[in-house]
Amino acid sequence: MKVAVYDTKSYDRRFLEASEAGGGKVEWVFHEFRLAADTARSAEGAEAVCVFVNDRLDRACLEILAEAGVRHVALRCAGFNNVDVEAGAELGLRFTRVPAYSPHAVAEHSVALLLTLNRKIHRAYNRVREQNFSLGGLVGFDLHGKTVGIIGTGKIGRVAAEIFIGFGCRVLAHDKYPDEDWAKAHGIDYTSFEALLAESHVVSLYVPLLPATQYLLNADTLAKTRSGVVIVNTSRGKLIDTTALIDGLKSGRIGGVALDVYEEEEGVFFEDLSDAVVQDDELIRLIGFPNVLVTAHQAFLTTEALSKIAEVTRENIIRLATGKKPVEETEVQQG
């Protein structure tokens, strides 16, 4: 069967072509451009499309896909906020995703970002390469004994919380559906959102982007944080209001920011713009702060995670094409 794959990089091709799950033959047609209404005609002849976080599957795009004969949209990621699932259901399309590829990959990256930012490792690395061995301006703080607030205790949030426990941190957690047994077993305390913000030296986000979580950290909520708080986000960019974040950095209330996502990352992240002028003034302002560290949505980028993404994506494509149920908990349902 023919599958059109969008927004692909070399690692996508390598892992999808190497995947062996499902036992059926897949003809991958790789496109470097993103899927949207103006590119959807490229899916002609494909039974399924495979998309990523910055492809835009609104009603207009989905109508063209359905007209072209596409019946399955396979997301090679966990989030689906870029998809109009309701419109797709009306058009008879089915959607699958990869909700749990490697919680360790994302959790470990968030901790790596925090450690790098705190201990100024990125700045020290650049200094030493220029034979500058001075230590001025490289002072950090011990994580041991600090309070870390984990917002969202799904698979990734729980792994991150356990890592911070290993560092000797006090861990507070907040979740709409708390896992009290897990928290008790690891010495973690659930608390209110407001209390977590007020008490945490570090606040790290592990929640999906939903209407209820968009701009979870905004001018009002950031004003309730502990002075000098460090914010870490490896989930979705629009969980944070960038304008409010910049204001917090300028005022000094926010002591540091470590991001792997950004609210307007489409068209910027995953691209080489080293010879271009980036048009996003807020992103340029943000990365100009000495206490801000940004990576370009790479938290998922491990061999284990990419292998799992390719395996589950391919298996779902084969299963749905042969009239079978998708892998458990991977189908995206309307509502």
Task: Explain this structure.
With 335 residues, the protein is of the alpha/beta class. The chain has 2 domains: 131 residues, Rossmann fold (3-Layer(aba) Sandwich); 192 residues, 3-Layer(aba) Sandwich (Rossmann fold). It has a 7-stranded parallel β-sheet, with helices on both faces. Strand 3, helix 2 and strand 4 form a beta-alpha-beta unit. The radius of gyration is 21 Å and the shape is globular. 40% of the residues are buried. The model has no long low-confidence stretch (mean pLDDT 95).
- Name the CATH architecture of the largest domain: 3-Layer(aba) Sandwich
- The number of domains is 2
- Give the strand line-up of the largest sheet: 8-7-6-9-10-11-12
Mean pLDDT: 95
Question: What's the story with the biggest beta sheet?
Answer: 7 strands, parallel
The CATH topology of the largest domain comes to Rossmann fold
Number of strands: 13
Helical amount: 25-40%
Report the uncertain regions: none
Based on Cα principal axes, name the global outline.
globular
Structural class: alpha/beta
How far is the first residue's CA from the last residue's CA? 29 Å
CATH class group of the largest domain: Alpha Beta
Number of helices: 12
What order do the helices and strands follow?
Answer: EHEEHEHEHHEHEHEHEHEHEHEHE
